[in-house]
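Hi D.,

Good news: the full-assembly prediction came through. Inputs first.
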Amino acid sequence: MSQTRTIMIECLRYDPEQDQAPHYRTYEVPFTDEMSVLEGLQYIKDHLDGSLTFRWSCRMAICGSCGCMVNHQPILSCQSFLRDYYPARIRVEPLEHFPIVKDLVIDQSDFLGKLESVTPYLVPAQPLTPEDGPNLQTPRQIEDYLGYAQCINCLLCYAACPQYGLNNEFTGPAALALLARYNADSRDAGQKTRMEVVNAEEGVWGCTLVGLCSEVCPKHVDPARAINRNKINSTQDYFLRFLAPFGRGS
Amino acid sequence: MTPAPKTYVRPMNRWWMRHPAYRRYLLREGTSVMVAAYALFLLAGMVCLVLGEAAFNLWRGFLQSPVSVIFHLAALAAFAFHAWTWFKVMPLTTPPIRFRGRSVPDRMIFRAALWAWGIASLILLVLAMRFL
Ligand code: SF4
Ligand code: FES
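Then the structure:
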């Protein structure tokens, strides 16, 4: 058992039934080396203040529900350790750029709408039935999209994106990365339906390559790359429409 | 999905203070102002050329003034930073490049761009020294 130390956790609090605006409360939390920020929050909830509200589930960087800001950096709280911040105090806030529901809990409905808008599933060229057998891919074809397929919808990338914060019409990193994921899949024929989202001002062109989304992504999805590669497709699409105005009826 | 009842939306004022990556980004974009300023300066030279010899000599004379030297040094620094940061993000904007079945790593693209930049600058410098 490693030795116990005490860290100060300053936590944003907001109770929609009582508060006009959020405020901060500081807690003294004893911790050991193997304790994550999430476990620090759980300590507060269990021993200091049962009203503290936050989301979590898997505790192993898989479910994507425990994202929050620690010292202005979007992180998964189950994957970040208190020992790495000690002796400094830490400031825990809900993910930036989303409306706060209560304490560290944010309202993700805007993202869920965007996720739906990118047709995040395979659209086969012709309808397939189980009798058609497996839809085979080569390792190289899998490689084309596997990286983008790792997204756990944790929204750290949205919290890192000032463009989304300034204008939440922007489709945003994770949704556009998933769009790229399905477009890059050899079994998919839905590029055309997704192109409208890509081409929109709020699509890939809403991105100015700040690049922090890719840095904070715990799954190395690299949304900045997905978005900026799609700028090429969007440009091609734009010019091709002039070249073949009658040939590309949808 | 119905939105939660009474949510709180935090303001975005002074957002660039929140993360060093935001300030780096603004600096990168800010240097393009200098790039534009230099383009205008060259354009002014062209206009002088059209206006006649006297105007063009005036513009050339200005090139030698200390103000112009400082402007050029500042422009050089801004261009170098802009190019460097642009090359850094360039691999994100290129389509996947494969060589012998393997995708080319980002740092190779970055290095290739730096070499191309260096060689192009060298050729320009040699030409300028020979003919000017
Ligand atoms: S792209 Fe990365 S940071 Fe964004 S939601 Fe997916 S896993 Fe999280
Ligand atoms: S608790 Fe599931 S990702 Fe952190």
